[in-house]
Amino acid sequence: MPSVEEVIRAERDKRMLQQRQAVADNMKGVKKRIAVMSGKGGVGKTMVTVNIAALLAEKHKVGLFDADIDCPNVGKFLGMTEKAKISADNRITPAEKHGMKIVSMAFLHESESQATIWRGPIISNAILQLMEKTNWGELDYLFADMPPGTSDAALTMMQLIGIDAAIIVSTPQSAAIADARRAISMCRHMGAPVLGIVENMSGFFGKRVEEIAKEEGIPFLGSIELRKDIAELSDLGLLPVRESAEARAVFEQIVSNFPEEYRVK
């Protein structure tokens, strides 16, 4: 006769399989699922995510999922006023901007200052429900802007939703690099390939992130200098990749460095 612990574990595993299948069925039209991660907050991960996604959206079908449940900022970086729509049967129609389908927890907040005060399991469940209930349709790429760290949200994306690869974003400071290594380590532990690493706010510490890429054996996608135009445009909800020729060239170089297996023809 199985023990109580074995019964609980079996029920948990059964629910996990059911959730995974429900998400897989809903996302069968998505070709590439890419998580953008950083071990540390404040490295410009959201800025990098929205600009890469917007550049690819010029030629591909792109979705953007704001998985940072606590601090959802994708809409702010895109200057969005439109929100996703929820039908009577709780299906979600994404908002659209710059040719992208976008879903964010911020769309469910009454105000920009409203806090999401949830424990980890509730956050994971929210991510699952958003992914399962959203009408993503046919997409070449779905980018997930992940919260900092390597805990609940990242585990949910890797275990239950599944990602094809992760992009790591880091600044050149020692603390950010150390945390980026942790994110890389998590991806390896979970069997999620690292598509590459991007250095943001470069220019003051040498090519430290590029050196880390070589040490870790992952592609170095490129550097984004600490630039006034990128900061100002982002604060205004405008995309540097659309508004600045110099910034666009930087992101075009980053995308051109994607390994061949992560390109959608």
Outline the structure in words.
There is one protein chain. By secondary structure, this protein is α/β, with parallel strands linked by helices. It has one domain (4-262): Rossmann fold, CATH 3.40.50.300. Helix content is 43%, strand content 20%. It is built from ten helices and ten strands. Strands 5-6-2-7-1-8-9-10 form an eight-stranded mixed β-sheet, sandwiched between helices. Strands 3-4 form a two-stranded antiparallel sheet. The longest helix is centred in the first third of the chain and has 23 residues, at 4-26.
Radius of gyration: 18 Å
Low-confidence stretches: none
Number of strands: 10
Helix content: 40-55%
pLDDT average, as an integer? 87
How many individual domains? 1
Intertermini distance: 54 Å
Spatial shape: globular
What assembly state would you assign to the polypeptide chains in this entry?
single chain
